[in-house]
Amino acid sequence: MTVLTRSRAAKIMGGIALVGASALVLAGCSGSPAPGASSAAPGDDYTFPIDCDKAAPESYTPEYSSTSKGPGTDLKYTIGTALPVTGNLAFLGPPEISATEYAASVVNEADKGVTIDLVQGDSGDTDNKAYETEVPRLLNAGATAIIGAASSGTSLQFIDQVIAADAIQFSPANTSAAFTGYKDKGLYWRTAPSDVLQGEVLGNLISGDGNETLGLIVLNDSYGTGLACFTKDAFEKAGGKVVAASLYNTGDTNFSAQVEDVLAADPDAIALITFEEVKTIIPELVGASFPSDKMYFVDGNLSNFGDEFPAGTLTGAKGTYPAVDPATITEFRDNLQKYWTDEGNEELKDFTYAPESYDAVILLALAALEAGSTEGPDVAAHLQQVSGGSGDGTKCTSYAECADIIIGGGVADYDGVSGPITFDEVGDPTQASIGIFEFGDDNNNEFVEVG
Prior knowledge:
Layout: E1 37-39, E2 75-82, H1 93-110, E3 114-119, H2 131-140, E4 145-148, H3 152-164, E5 168-171, E6 188-190, H4 195-208, E7 213-219, H5 222-237, E8 241-248, H6 256-264, E9 269-273, H7 278-287, E10 295-297, E11 318-322, H8 330-342, H9 354-371, H10 376-386, E12 394-396, H11 399-407, E13 412-414, E14 434-439, E15 445-450
Parallel strand pairs: 2-3, 2-4, 4-5, 5-6, 7-8, 7-9, 9-10, 10-11, 12-13
Antiparallel strand pairs: 1-8, 11-14, 14-15
Helix pairs in contact: 1-9, 2-3, 4-5, 9-10, 9-11
């Protein structure tokens, strides 16, 4: 892998690669083609069913302004969440929601200028459209920042509504390159890196495992089509050939046509760029005797499946998602698990995007403290600086430590549990990591190696 420069808990409910901000705008995919398929016998030419020519995000640099003066002394900050309680990413709900609750409790217990009133909400997905009622409810409740959604496609459904309200939208899990150049008035931020990076790691992983041909089953939204393009580009640059790709829409429940089409091309490996629909796709691939160690997962579906499938179903399958080495955040995981179960909730099965969710809340609180305001534009004008993006801050790793620096008149540079973060001028993290994970006989995955 090339290194690039670059509170209240309602019961509603595992390689590293670094990349710089400049790398995140070099490639991408956009557009939403009609669901379809395209495959060919190995060696034949075929038409990839996604337009990957519209690659780079639009060039856009927002202007930030803040009339407030900090640090704050007694700020009441209402933050809403639009995270997946329901829908095709509901398995990500518990780690993300628990981490926002835990972060809010940490800020409130510190008692250093900011008190967070966290209002939980459900993003749903583009099929059940829970966001249509939830986002207005959060804004009406006084939220000047909304954390979510997890799905890029879902976030794109309500981003304009949040911006129009002069509120911040802050996602811990959106990875679509479409957000990099989105005309958001500086109000959209994320702690997850663009899928330009994950696609590069995934494509190189598949090729490095000795696979020469690749088929893909792809969710037809900005996340799925973009990641498919980045994976295809990396795999082909490594000498491989994509021989099949088949798309489906959110809400689809039958994937026999997609599985049959991809298998007809006889690929060495299959990348499953899906969300929770993978639970229906896996049995069909297994039933067709496709080897599990030739299946590759992504952040949208890399879950610990456990006894949802017979033992050994996924042995040797691999996957990627933005994550730090779990060994470096053992204390955070333990503390989060204890906090969540002490609140009467079920034990967390995995921690996907929990660090990013935690850091989102901490960064918002620090930016509000520095601004002396909880208004969206004011907080947005300070988010890059508290992340270290201005380059002149003092390193700190907790809300309390960073708050003391700000209160003392200094500049804080927060390094979080998800990594150094360090936002660029459009709200993308300039440093991020991609974990490579492998499934064992128990159908659960574990961290493997550097991507």
